[in-house]
Automatic annotation (TrEMBL):
Protein name: EAL domain-containing protein
Domain EAL intervals: 31-282
The UniProt record lists the keyword Glycosyltransferase: no
Location of this chain's protein in the cell: Cell membrane
Swiss-Prot/TrEMBL keywords: Cell membrane, Membrane, Transmembrane, Transmembrane helix
Lineage: Bacteria, Pseudomonadati, Pseudomonadota, Gammaproteobacteria, Oceanospirillales
Annotated organism of origin: Neptuniibacter pectenicola
Length: 282
């Protein structure tokens, strides 16, 4: 009986092992496949930017928008960034994709400022992998080619970017500030959320992660966290933006605790460029 048990365990182990390697091979080939597709996408211009508006919570005025990438896949249709940005980062393809995003968003921002005759801002997400010395020149070129005023460009980074090699990061952030662009800390509260970051780095804007917004105003813990974040952010002179605003009750709460701007499905989902233009700048 004991022998049978050992034999069974070995069989199990072997099967698990086989299953595991098959699964890994499958994953590896899947990744390779997506990587090949991504290279084709870059070559064939299959990316598109959607735009989500941001509003002043007090007077409901449009203050700017965030550019959010989509992949118009020839067979699969619209693919969301969560499905390809991580792999783009791992493979380094994000460098090329990110450069395109910057150029495209700056062009659009410049056009919208001239259409509306107001200083609407254009926010662009920049991932850890893009956050290297070359980024400074990429930003400078995108601004020059588009004619977008530097103040109108908001570079969104996350806490993971700030954790990474602090000294070099400080230098890079300062160089970006010297160009005149604004810096925003995206998804605040989900990473290490060190309040010390707000003291150490010279940022302009803080985006409170949707995770804290979704159960407002009923969740007392999230209410306390949100208003504490807002107070600290304002102490450091940052503009606060609530992400993922979906209800009027959330707006009421946020406005009451002094949050300045909001972005979310209550106002608008991310929409294609033509739709945005027709709705906000016609
Ligand atoms: P993010 O920068 O935090 O962008 C906000 C995400 O929340 C967007 O998802 C947006 O569609 C979604 N969202 C906005 N309002 C609401 C709401 O009220 N409710 C809910 N449930 N969701 C809302 P999306 O467009 O799928 O983008 C996901 C992430 O992909 C972004 O998170 C960002 O980290 C990354 N990403 C998007 N575009 C780019 C890009 O051009 N470059 C890089 N590096 N990353 C990008
Ligand atoms: Mg963002
Ligand atoms: Mg975010
Ligand atoms: Mg995010």
């Amino acid at each position: 009986n004991a022998d049978a048990a050992v034999h069974f365990a070995k069989m199990q182990g072997r099967n698990n092992y086989q299953f595991f390697t098959t699964e890994m091979n499958h994953q590896a080939s899947q990744r390779l496949h997506i990587e090949t597709e991504l290279r084709k996408a870059i070559k064939n211009n299959e990316f598109e930017l959607f735009y989500q508006p941001q509003f002043d919570l007090k007077n409901n005025q449009l203050v700017g928008c965030e550019a959010l990438i989509r992949w118009q896949h020839p067979e699969q249709g619209l693919v969301s960034p969560d499905a390809f940005i991580p792999l783009s980062e791992e493979t380094g393809l994000i460098i090329q994709v990110g450069r395109w995003v910057l150029q495209q968003a700056c062009m659009q921002g410049a056009k919208w400022i001239s259409l509306s005759q107001t200083m609407v801002t254009m926010s662009v997400n920049v991932s850890v992998r893009q956050f290297r010395p070359e980024l400074v020149d990429e930003v400078r070129s995108a601004l020059m080619e588009s004619g977008l005023p530097p103040r109108a460009l908001v570079i969104e980074i996350t806490e993971s970017t700030l954790m990474h090699d602090e000294e070099a990061t400080l230098v890079l952030l300062q160089e970006l500030k010297n160009i005149g662009v604004q810096l925003s800390l995206d998804d605040f509260g989900t990473g290490y959320s060190s309040m010390a970051y707000l003291k150490r780095f010279n940022l302009d804007q803080l985006k409170i992660d949707r995770a804290f917004i979704s159960d407002l105003p009923n969740d007392k813990d999230d209410a306390a966290i949100t208003s504490a974040i807002i107070d600290v952010a304002h102490h450091f002179g940052l503009v606060t933006v609530a992400e993922g605003v979906e209800t009027p009750e959330q707006v009421a709460f946020l406005a009451n605790v002094g949050c300045v701007e909001g972005q979310g499905f209550l106002y608008e989902k991310p929409i294609p460029v033509g739709v945005f233009e027709e709705k906000y700048f016609a």
